[in-house]
Amino acid sequence: MPKDRIIATVMAASFAAVDDSAFLPPLNAVPNPDEHTLNPLLTDEKQKQLNKDKNDLRIDNERYLRSHPEVRDIVTHFMQRVLSEYPEDLHQFANEHFADPDLRDKVRQCKIDNARYAKIFSEIP
Predict the structure, then answer these.
(1) Helix/strand/coil for 95
(2) Cα–Cα distance measured from residue 16 to residue 14, given in angstroms and rounded to the nearest whole number
(3) Residue 9, CA distances (Å) to 3, 77, 88 in order
(4) Long-range contacts, stretch 13-18, CB < 8 angstroms, 24+ apart
(5) Which residues, at least 6 apart from 111, have a Cβ–Cβ distance to it below 8 Å?
(6) Which of 29, 58, 101, 102 is positioned for an S-S bond with 25, CB 3.0–4.6 A?
(7) Rounded mean pLDDT of 102-117?
(8) What is the pLDDT of residues 56-84, one digit of tens each?
(9) Which of 119, 117, 111, 112 is nearest to 77 (CA)?
């Protein structure tokens, strides 16, 4: 798998909120409308409720991630491995990575190493 494809795949799996409106048609759009399908799939009220629910879910997810820093540590460790090893099969690599019984110890060591590197780099003038 080419390096830029791996990076794009990893970035797509990040926790950043993505505005999918640029990639997908509006949820209330009617596919191929004709005289028999003039009504929208969702009423304005239901669309507003759906948008509110999506926003609430994103906020809940953000709160969860902020209150569980171990998730960031796990993702950081995974991304460092992906970017340093460039696996051919990213899905298989991810399966093996997250099924590793020693993952907790490896993530802990990664966090220690990253803190040490941060200290070293902060001392460079």
Answers:
(1) helix
(2) 6
(3) 10, 16, 12
(4) 14/75, 15/61, 15/65, 15/75, 17/58, 17/62
(5) 73, 76, 77
(6) 29
(7) 93
(8) 999 999 999 899 989 999 999 999 999 99
(9) 111
